[in-house]
Amino acid sequence: MIADKKEFGLGVVLFISFWAIFAVLLSPVFEGKNLLDYMDNLYNTISKKSSYYIPAVKKKAEPFMGQQIEFSVQAKDGKQAERMTKLFQAAQATVTVEGNNVKISGDMGKIFDNVLVDADAMFNNNGQAINQNKYGYDEKQVMYDWWTAMKSAETNMNKSGRFKEGKVFYQIMTKTIEPAYNYYGIVATDIKEKVVMVVVSLAGYVIYTMWYGFAILFMFEGWGLKLEH
């Protein structure tokens, strides 16, 4: 038995309208995208500018210019080992491949600089500079190969007690390669240009969440279920 039909009816209307709007939000009505994709793209364009750490990491890598180093990285398979050879040779390093093990000997600073140049090109959506003009294969694959190489090199450095060098490998991996890969193809936007949309989206999220909560509340209270202390 419904205790309060008016309150219960209001709850039902709110509940149905919530899901009706939800269906619209999941439809491609926002510039050909659903709301989730549209908002994801919006916040990616806004956050990209604040994720540009390449100049800062480059300063930390500069002291290693001219420092000779020998280390090994582990490739996933033979094909990746061949691709990694191209990457390190572009930094004028000597590379020897033994199965999936890639041995590198060269100027550490030049290796760091080469990675940062590639990451910078990717971050600025200039994949052609890597793909067609440098290595001859997909630019996102280049970034993945660099990430694998830097991760393996960091492990190698830490195991041999060269923590200072390992830290730079880690920073290049996490602060330059990863943002370059994740933000590739996204055009950076200043938050000032989208401040109205940001405020509306945050307010809309709060209102829409409360909408569902009140729908459930009114239906249960209208039905006669109440919390008592």
Key attributes of the depicted protein:
single chain, 229 residues, mainly alpha, 9 helices, 65% helix
Q: How would you describe this protein?
A:
The chain has 229 residues and is mainly alpha-helical. It has helices at residues 5-25, 35-48, 54-61, 78-89, 108-123, 128-135, 139-159, 163-182, 195-223; strands at residues 68-74, 94-98, 101-107.
Approximate strand percentage: 5-15%
Q: Number of DSSP strands?
A: 3
Unreliable sequence segments: none
Fraction of residues in H or I helices: 55-70%
Gyration radius from CA atoms, angstroms? 26 Å
- Separation, N- and C-terminal Cα atoms: 23 Å
Q: Supply the helix-strand structural class.
A: mainly alpha
Task: Provide a brief overview of the structure.
The protein is mainly α.
Task: Reconstruct the topology from this structure.
Elements: H1 5-25, H2 35-48, H3 54-61, E1 68-74, H4 78-89, E2 94-98, E3 101-107, H5 108-123, H6 128-135, H7 139-159, H8 163-182, H9 195-223
Helix pairs in contact: 1-9, 3-5, 3-8, 4-7, 5-7, 5-8, 7-8
